[in-house]
Amino acid sequence: MSSILCVEDAEDIGHLLTEILGSAGHCVDWVGDGETALERWQDASLIILDLTLPDIDGLEICRQIRARDSLVPLIMLTARAATRDVVEGFELGADDYITKPFDADILLARVQALLRRHAKQGPERDEAPVHVGDLEIDIANHRAMLKGQLLSLTAREFALLVHFARHPGRGFSRGDLLDAVWGAEFDGFDHTVNTHINRLRGKIESDPKHPRYILTVWGVGYRFTDEAEAP
């Protein structure tokens, strides 16, 4: 049973989320403000976060959580549907972004899919760390280091990096990456991949405008450098 923190100030939606998730066997901790969320998020297996809260903006809550933890899955559930809001949410580290009004079955499917993927990203003790240039990807211990310095990556960023590292030199379309990292049931947009690639490049590349690890393949998508090309 997973513990899900729902951060939602609207009582009707809070009760609805509690009912939907509780009926699926999850333990739901519903809070109505950002301050309480920041006190309780560390006990959660997954966070569902509204952006418009009475005290702290949800984007700021996401920023603070990601500054302290790179793994906990986080879904933004909000009425903000503008492209700039969606992009900013992903840039701050959201794993998924769902707009209100929402379909209960789709929300639950997204939650279950994200929990499954997060569980699969657990320790794989038989998989040796990958070393490419100054980058070390320790899959077993779910961490990445650049020049010996630990990188702060979200769960999705790490999953994306691992997928690339397992297939050096192979080109992937944005659709390929959505299926492999987000799952075939994810109905997001290609710019979701672009946003995560840009964030990841910003963390592992010395010059993100001239990347040396995650390379653009024009007309295809992206590929990860192989050892022969490593900086």
From TrEMBL:
Domain spans labelled Response regulatory: 3-115
Gene3D superfamilies to which the protein is assigned, alphabetical: 3.40.50.2300, 6.10.250.690, Winged helix-like DNA-binding domain superfamily/Winged helix DNA-binding domain (1.10.10.10)
A GO cellular-component term linked to this record: cytosol
PROSITE patterns linked to this entry: OMPR_PHOB, RESPONSE_REGULATORY
Sites bearing 4-aspartylphosphate, chain numbering: 50
Top-level taxon of the source organism: Bacteria
Domain OmpR/PhoB-type: 127-226
InterPro entries cross-referenced by the UniProt entry: CheY-like_superfamily, OmpR/PhoB-type_DNA-bd, Sig_transdc_resp-reg_receiver, WalR-like, WH-like_DNA-bd_sf
Name of this chain's protein: Phosphate regulon transcriptional regulatory protein PhoB
